[in-house]
Write a structure and sequence with these properties.
The complex is a heterodimer of chains A (about 375) and B (about 550). By secondary structure, chain A is mainly alpha-helical. Chain A has 15 helices and four strands. The chains are: A mainly alpha (about 375), B mainly alpha (about 550).
Chain lengths: ~375, ~550
Amino acid sequence: MAQTTSEETGAEAFGHLVRRFRNFVDETDREALAVVGVMSAALLAAFAGFLLVSSYTVAPFAVFLVAAGYGWLRHQELTARLLTLTTTVSTILILILIIAFIFVEAVPVVFYESATVFGIEIPGLRMFIQPEWDAVSSPIRYSMVPMIHGTVMVTLVATAVAAPLGVAAALFLSEIAPRTVRELVKPGVEILAGIPSIVYGFIGFTVLSPWASDQFDILGQGTYLFVGVVVGLMALPTVVSVAEDALNSVPESMKSGSLAVGTTDWQTMTSITLPAAFSGVSAAVLLGVGRAIGETMAATVMLRGVPKLTDPLYNVFYGQETLTSLIARNYGEADGLQMDALFVAGVILFITVLVISVGSQYVEWRMRKKFGGDV
Amino acid sequence: MAGATRTRLVREDTSGADAVAALAVGVASVLFGLGLAAMFEVVALTGALAGVPTLPLLGGLLLVQGVAVVVFGVGSRFGAVETNPRPDAGIVAAVAFTLIWFVVGGLVASQVLSLGLAGWLLGAILTGAAGFAATVLPREDVGSTLPAGVVTALVGLVFLSGYIAPTSVWDLGWAQKASLTAEFMVPVVTVFCALLTGWAAAKAYGGFGARGRRIGAYLLVYLNAAAIVGVLFALVAFTVFKGVPGLFRGLTFGPGVGPESTVVLFGASVTFSWPVYWPFAMNGVGLLNDLNGVLPAIVGTFWLVVGAVLFAVPLGVGAAIFLTEYAERGRFTQVVEVATNGLWSTPSIVFGLFGFAFLIPRFGNGKSLLAGMLTLGFMLLPLVVITSREAMLSVPDEYRDASAALGVTKWQTIRSVVLPAALPGVVTGTILGVGRIAGETAPILLTMAGGVFVPGSQTADVIGGFQFTAAPPFVSNPELLQATSALPYQLYALITAGVGASGNVGNPDQFRWATALILLIVVLSFYAVGIVTRYYFRRKLDYE
């Protein structure tokens, strides 16, 4: 672990680290060092064994447990430190493993779906330049275009629902509501986040979908419009809570300064609080978009499950398939290339949401810096 | 501060005009209610209300409302009503009205005058520009009432004129057939106009200007908050209403009516039978059952949660301790922070894919309870890290200094000062996170879940399942390595199985709603406990 950090920060930092490590070795009791060494080695061996699907994984893990137990009794300070470091590393490791495994699984179909442009073969390109998904009859094609289209449609509708309503609700909770009302509405919003997505999907499937088919005179059931509305409702709590935090982080002195010159509280909100918290509020909307993109079960049970584009493209009254629902619907009968194609959908989802998450964190970080707070 | 303008010195007593504006707000709320009722088919468009056919009634109300709003605005402009408007209505209102009038013009040009694309676009742009001008050019009192009132009055006229019937259908002419029906459009347009004129009337009630804007905006913001709570309430109430009959079917109390349980303690076994028999929660699905239930799914969900918590909480709290107490703030902590936040927003289905690719080959190549536990544990981990870290950061440094001053080691400080102080935050965050993962379907779909109708004999018995083996892992638990069910998956399987697969369940629809309700109860009780815990600790901290 120390190795990877040092590579990033250059030779100087590496030297620093080596020095610190030497000091650590010099200062620490020999026996404690041995225990810590055994623990680390055993844990590494156990992890390697687990990765290699070895049935002997349990042996090094047992050694680790024994060493940790002994260390806990004799050298608690150092053992605790090593254990907490281990947990931290494993958190990062999980993210790395997720990236590695879903990318590796996606590779074969990427090469299958190569396309030639100007004489150069680009792997995976055919998945994005033609809209045909056919896993059964030849030619077998795994295009991601219809699912990306579906995800974009659902996300657009969901954002149109969640962003204005969420920001207004955040404004209400943080600036307007009397204390007693807030104590009631805030848990309500949280409970809205707590309703399982499959319950939303079930209600949408049994109530909303038939109703929409009737109201819009559609053939069959499943519309991007109402999936988007339901998903927007599910993304709403995320927007509300993050935006509320952003609004609360605007220093009280700014607000009272505005009120002191005789504005109404609404004027203060629109001309001081909202502009000051703008980046935080947009981070909230971004996170809501991320939630909407990743929402699976409601889309799976409410959509038709036919991977093709709607006709015309802006026809929101027909709901075919999104990236998430493709995975949830097809994992059962998929194998070989089709299963790998599902992993491609997973990779697209993962990258998109990760970019959104990092982007919103950057925006929030800038905002905190602006207010001179704790970065 | 806003009340200051209400004193007689500043503002004349205009109770008559105030009453008109208040009445307009009232009519708007009536229209809003009627529109919603029509949308949910409580009020039939083809029927009549109080002897008047619904559609003309809505039209008449809209016309009156629109005219009233316009009259108030114009009256204020010519000094008949005393208000203190701004020079113009503001950019937000201008954009909104431009869009509305763009749509109105486009609709009239394409539907009524049946012009082509160029024609309706031109018409739409012209009316949009007119809407913009009418909002921006005149004083605020006219600018915020005239465009809203005229649209509403126009809609009212259209409804009154009989140009559209309650059964009208406009085919959009798309390749995939879809139409706009009067059944849908009339309520939607009514609700929209009610909001528009309600806002204008509320503004007028406040006498425009800063105070008027405040009242107009507050109306919408309060309405929004009420709508969110209303939707929540409706969702829960609907599920309860549909689920209760199935959930409590055959529920009986009395000594000895329930199933028998055997508890083994220190070699002595005690057999007793429960004083309550609740078929839905105590049975699986079987041919011989009088009433079927979802016991295996309930037990599956229980073990899932236990497993995920056992995996995620030690890891998460440990990581939080390292990050807040040991690590120097710098690039490393930043990377971990970004990574945990990234993990937290990773879609649940991606966790499912990961579990499918990573865990399943390592646990006997089949879906298993253990794989489900770990997958959900991976999902829970970032939340535990984030909330624990927040809780530890909020422990004041004075606590740490005071402890360090006693000469104890860092770890002792953490163990006996920081952790106890941060415990409430950790516990609350974990409970809320557990509520979230207990309702997740997507990850366990790929890693753990089995059949649609699960017989009671497949209830996982994790504790009784441990056995020692001679082969390398030495400890094995077939129960952990078997596919089992959980409540969210059970509901999903019931939905996708459709009505046809009744699987000996007497009333599949009732069975499904009851499953949804029990899932909702399980998940929301975690949330309720979490929220109450937080509330309790916060009050305790407030009074300390």
